[in-house]
């Protein structure tokens, strides 16, 4: 199972200035619970955006996709493209960002796990388009984040 996991605003914003422009701890807990124990595939900018204390993401095999020849980093394996990264992980992995990696991985994905944040937030990175081949497998109820007060819900998409 190859899954893609991300949080987005209702307008599709996933980031601004290589950061997540909102704080919903419940989404971070969902991300951790979902990806723990599984390989995670990310782009180099996503890797760079992780706080150093979470690099590599603990309890997960970290694969960083980069076009920079010879780029290496402690705690992660590197791949030159999404196909190479997925070949390293075999049948199960979570793709965790960013935009270019999501778009490249979409044809290989079996499942999308999307946290929708009900907020109007400016951004410069956007979620990939979810095409007609995807159907909503689960529409979670709206919740209010205890820390930020933002409304959010968890959505799951499966190939139709």
How is this fold's topology laid out?
Elements: E1 2-9, E2 13-15, H1 25-35, E3 40-43, H2 44-49, E4 62-65, E5 77-79, H3 82-89, E6 93-95, H4 99-105, E7 111-118, E8 125-126, E9 134-139, E10 143-144, E11 151-159
Parallel strand pairs: 1-6, 1-7, 3-4, 3-6, 4-5
Antiparallel strand pairs: 2-8, 7-11, 9-11, 10-11
Structural commentary:
By secondary structure, this protein is of the alpha/beta class. The chain has a single domain (11-159), classed as Dihydrofolate Reductase, subunit A. 20% of the residues lie in helices and 32% in strands. It has four helices and eleven strands; from the N terminus they run ββαβαββαβαβββββ. The chain has helices at 25-35, 44-49, 82-89, 99-105; strands at 2-9, 13-15, 40-43, 62-65, 77-79, 93-95, 111-118, 125-126, 134-139, 143-144, 151-159. Strands 1, 3, 4, 5, 6, 7, 9, 10 and 11 form a nine-stranded mixed β-sheet that branches. A hairpin with a 6-residue loop joins β10 (143-144) and β11 (151-159). The protein is globular and about 45 Å long.
């Amino acid at each position: 199972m190859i899954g893609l996991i991300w949080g987005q605003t209702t307008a599709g914003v996933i980031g601004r200035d290589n950061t997540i422009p909102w704080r919903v701890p419940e989404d971070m807990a969902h991300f951790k619970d979902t990806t723990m124990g599984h390989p995670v595939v990310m782009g180099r900018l996503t890797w760079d955006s992780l706080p150093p204390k979470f690099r590599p993401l603990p309890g997960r095999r970290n694969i960083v996709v980069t076009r920079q020849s010879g780029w290496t980093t402690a705690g992660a394996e590197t791949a030159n493209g999404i196909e190479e990264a997925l070949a390293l992980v075999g049948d199960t992995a979570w793709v965790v960002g960013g935009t270019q990696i999501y778009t490249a991985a979409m044809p290989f994905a079996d499942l999308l796990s999307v946290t929708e944040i009900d907020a109007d937030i400016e951004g410069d990175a956007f979620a990939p388009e979810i095409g007609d081949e995807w159907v909503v497998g689960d529409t979670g109820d709206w919740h209010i984040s205890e820390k930020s007060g933002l409304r959010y819900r968890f959505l799951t998409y499966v190939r139709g």
